Amino acid sequence: MRVLLVEDEQRLTENIVAALREIGLAVDSALDGETGSHLAEQNIYDAIVLDLMLPGKSGQSVLRDLRQRAIHSPVLILTAQEGKESIIELLNAGADDYLSKPFDLGELLARVKALIRRGKGASTSILKMSDVELDTVHQTVLRQGQPIDLSPTEYRILEYLIHRPRAIVSKRELLEHLYDFAWEHHSNVIEAHVSNLRRKLNLPGTEPLIETLRHRGYRLSEGSAT
Amino acid sequence: MIAKSVSITRRLVVTVLLLELLSAAALVVAVTIHEHHIQLKTFDANLAVRAASLMGAVQDAEDKGDNVILDPRGVRLDKDAVYRVTDERGRVLGTAGDTTQLAESFADSPGFHDAKVGKRSYRFFVLHGVRIIDPGQPDGGTVHSIAVLYGIHAGRVWHEVIEAIRFFTLATVLLLGITAIVMVLLVRRYLSPIHELAHEADQISSRNWQFEAPASAKKTVELRPLTDALESALARVQRSFEQQKRFTSDAAHELKTDVAIVKSSLQLLSMRRRTAEEYSQGLAVSLDDFTRLESTVQKLLALARLEQHEESGETRSLCSLRNAVEEAVHLSRPLAELRRVEIMLDTLEDATVLIDGHDADLLCSNILINALQHSHEEGKVQITLIQREERIILTVKDWGEGISEEDRPHLLEPFYRGDISRSRKSGGTGLGLSICKAICDKAGGSIEISNHEAGGAVVTVSLPFADRQAASQRRSAWIKAE
Question: Scanning A153, B41, B274, B353, which has its CA 20 to 30 A from the CA of B129?
Answer without folding.
Answer: B41
